[in-house]
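Input record (one chain):
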Amino acid sequence: MEIEKTNRMNALFEFYSTLLTEKQMNYMELYYADDFSLGEIAEEYEVSRQAVYDNIKRTEKIIEEYERKLHLYSDYIVRGELLDKLKTYSAETYPKDETLISYIEQIQEIEE
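The corresponding structure, as predicted from the sequence alone:
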């Protein structure tokens, strides 16, 4: 369960990090991406462990709220699934259609 939450927070962070304050970005990146402990972050920023914990929990709620309203991450996942289905379908049904293959590749590049 914890690894799923970490993966989700990292993914949401990629989409919404620019909407956060610098401190929120730094704490989240250190905690989730760099795997720092609360104590290590507190020491780095010369604040209490509780202050770091509160900031991270508040930021998690903010990021989840952004996702609830904007759906950037969930839409990205759905588009990826549909793109995979489209690639499979076109490979089976239209294997020699170079134009179709080119369009699919262009869409895939945009998504990446």
